[in-house]
Design goal:
The structure is a single chain. This protein is α/β, with parallel strands linked by helices and 314 residues long. It has a single domain, classed as Aldolase class I (TIM Barrel), CATH 3.20.20. Helices cover 44% and strands 10% of the residues. A five-stranded parallel beta sheet has the order 4-5-6-7-8. The protein has a two-stranded parallel sheet with strand order 1-9. Strand 6, helix 5 and strand 7 form a beta-alpha-beta unit.
Length: 314
């Protein structure tokens, strides 16, 4: 695992957000050999970045499992850039901070909290967590009220965290029907340099976010199935080949539509298995697995997307 400090130059890339495989035993234990198959598939697509968060259901991971995940990540290849997530509650994040201090991760992402909060309180908590774990943070903006009901106060708090070096990056994942109309993102970019902000909702808004807002890169879930294709989209965006990029983006939409319908993480969990990449296995509570009928509808889009992935090592 790479241990050198993260810089904003690192955000000019694609960041897959992979599932975490689990066995179908009584405790649904983490299956690291199968999880490593997902990592190998992504690496075969020319990507060495891995962000463990919502698609791995880290919202519901136990502390013992979290420690196992950190130890396993620490043993990966030296050129693998692994970012774990923590939280979402303050107490859970502080408990995880002591585990994070045992290793040298480049940074850590805080999962968005839906419990009672406001901008000033959340900013204080983020600073306390950063002090406790000794790592720069990635702030995950999933909704406009992530930092409380006062949107302007929330954006100002995020800007102070970036200004003071507490936050190195922002995963921007607020869903819009019209991808090029986003006053909240515009407000963020008035306060924070766009080099600190990465598009955080996969391939669907990747072109709009890079072309119209100048974001440097994007995260991907479906790119875990077809990483070479996701990398091609990034490279076409960077080259401003918008027609070619749109042709690539369209290949992701059948699976992305199902993820939006039934839940991004649970559909991706099934899709990786149906594409023949790894046995992803069980999903931990509080989330249910897809029904057999739903899996049947995911099967073809997953296999077709997987077939579009041509490993760069081939």
């Amino acid at each position: 695992m790479r241990t050198r400090a993260v810089t904003t130059d690192d955000f000019r890339s694609v960041f897959p957000v992979p599932p975490l495989c689990r066995r179908r035993d009584a405790r649904r234990t983490i299956d690291f050999p199968e999880t490593e198959k997902i990592i190998q598939n992504i690496a075969a697509g020319g990507i060495r970045n891995f962000l463990y968060g919502g698609n791995a259901f880290l919202y519901h991971i136990t502390l013992a499992e979290y420690e196992e995940l950190l130890a396993w990540s620490n043993g990966l290849d030296n050129d693998y850039f692994v970012i774990p997530s923590a939280g979402p509650s303050f107490g859970r994040a502080l408990d995880q901070a002591s585990l994070l201090k045992r290793y040298t991760f480049p940074c850590v992402m805080l999962l968005p909290c839906a419990d009672p909060r406001d901008a000033a309180g959340l900013e204080r908590g983020y600073r306390d967590f950063a002090d406790a774990c000794g790592l720069p943070l990635i702030v995950y903006l999933k909704e406009e009220n992530n930092f409380g009901s006062d949107k302007e106060a929330g954006l100002d708090a995020v800007a102070r965290l970036v200004r003071d070096g507490v936050c190195i990056g922002i995963k921007y994942a607020v869903v819009r029907k019209n991808l090029i109309e986003d006053a909240y993102l515009e407000g963020l970019l008035k306060r924070v340099d766009r080099k600190n902000v990465i598009s955080g909702i996969g391939e669907r808004p990747a072109i709009a976010h890079m072309r119209d807002f100048g974001l440097p890169g994007f995260t991907t879930g479906s790119g875990c199935v077809a990483p070479a294709l996701s990398r091609a989209l990034f490279e076409m965006n960077t080259a401003r080949d918008w027609v070619g990029a749109e042709n690539v983006r369209q290949q992701f939409l059948p699976l992305e539509d199902l993820r939006d319908t039934w839940g991004p993480a649970r559909v991706l969990h099934a899709a990786v298995e149906l594409a023949g990449i790894a046995r992803t296995g069980a999903i931990p509570p509080y989330v249910s697995e897809l029904s057999e009928s739903q899996r049947a509808q995911v099967d073809l889009p997953a296999r077709e997307l997987g077939a579009a992935h041509i490993p760069v090592t081939a």
